[in-house]
Specification:
Layout: E1 11-22, E2 35-47, E3 52-56, H1 63-71, E4 78-86, E5 89-90, H2 96-100, E6 107-110, H3 114-117, H4 124-134, H5 140-153, H6 170-181, E7 188-192, H7 200-217, E8 220-224, H8 228-234, E9 237-242, E10 245-251, H9 252-257, H10 262-269, H11 309-313, E11 319-322, E12 325-327
């Protein structure tokens, strides 16, 4: 964490929008027009080599959809727009065959829920080897040695590569998923809630493993989580998302100490503070907006404690409120839009 950054980002997400075309409403009043769920709207951020960027927000705010959009792992009903540059290549402009060359080899993902992500009828070592052979990186005997190396790297005895996922504990399955993600030596790793359903001690072990691997391999990591404590421990930068948009974006220490967006403020106030354990925790009334019925102005306006009239009708742009610190709020005095 907190590594020296290279001059140029490894990943540049620019004005990424993801809409899903849904079947028409069954009611007669709806006609035969298709409905659109606007899952992501105008999302922009950077990821530098060796950096960890956290995506945080409530369930349904677009965190996982952002990862899946970058990797182009979405159903046929999805419509993508914007630009996603990996180094100098716009991934959204590639055909599917070309995009497959980037998955796992350059950008890998640790999916949420390792038991569902691993094939239950294939031995763990075989699944890792398959990822290596798919990209023609090594011969079969070399791939076997690589599998053993990867398992040892994540703390699993190589002999257990011959076992099935059900013979692993939850923590071991998550480690196996990390080994699989590292099989082709990617430079960018997506981790989607990597500690879900694990007990506290195992969570800490998995996060420590990710930090050690990142340091050893100089990986860039994009970490999806709802746990603000994990973000504070793991991340250099944080993207706070709400309703499919970026509410605030900047260095972790800056945003945690001086949050500008009302949503970020309420999120942080809802998290226990060990320095002031007697403080009352805040809550955010209401629920996130339906993606098919978004408000015309700011998406947080119906739940915001600081809303003004302008928030009802105008969507605020993401402006730079301080050096490298961005917020999308009419109350923030932004100077310019970098994206």
């Amino acid at each position: 964490m907190h590594s020296t950054l290279a001059d140029s980002p490894l990943l540049r997400v620019r004005h990424l929008s993801t809409h899903f075309i849904l079947p028409a409403d069954a009611s007669p009043a709806a006609g035969d027009g298709k409905r659109v769920a606007r899952a992501l709207e105008d999302v922009s951020f950077d990821v530098y080599p060796g950096q960890t960027v956290g995506l945080v927000g409530e369930s349904g705010c677009g965190k996982t959809t952002t990862l899946m959009s970058v990797m182009r792992l979405l159903p046929a009903t999805a419509r993508l727009s914007g630009q996603v540059f990996f180094k100098e290549t716009n991934l959204l402009a590639l055909d599917e065959k070309s995009m497959r060359g980037y998955r796992w080899k350059d950008i890998a993902i640790v999916f949420q829920g390792a038991m569902n992500a691993l094939n239950p009828v294939m031995k763990v070592g075989e699944q890792i080897r398959e990822a290596i052979l798919l990209h023609n990186l090594l011969e079969r005997d070399q791939a076997e040695a690589r599998v053993a190396e990867l398992l040892e790297m994540v703390g699993i005895p190589k002999e257990r590569g011959g076992q099935y996922p059900f013979q692993y504990s939850g923590g071991m399955r998550q480690r196996a998923m990390i080994a699989m993600a590292l099989a082709c030596s990617p430079s960018l790793l997506f981790a989607d809630e990597p500690t879900t359903a694990l007990d506290v001690m195992v969570q800490a072990q998995v996060l420590e493993l990710l930090k050690n691997i990142q340091k050893a391999l100089r990986l860039a990591i994009v970490l999806v989580t709802h746990d603000l404590g994990v973000v504070a421990e793991m991340c250099d930068m944080v993207v706070v998302m709400y309703g499919g948009k970026v509410a605030e974006y900047g260095p972790v220490d800056v945003i945690y100490n001086a949050p500008q967006h009302p949503y970020t403020q309420r999120l942080l106030e809802s998290f226990p503070d060990l320095v002031r354990p007697t403080d009352m925790l805040a809550s955010i009334p209401g629920t996130p907006p339906r993606l098919t019925e978004l408000p015309p102005g700011c998406r947080f306006e119906p739940r915001c404690h600081a809303r003004i009239d302008k928030c009802k009708t105008e969507s605020p742009p993401l402006l730079e409120v301080a050096d490298g610190h961005f917020a999308a709020c009419h109350l923030c005095l932004g100077t310019k839009a970098r994206f």
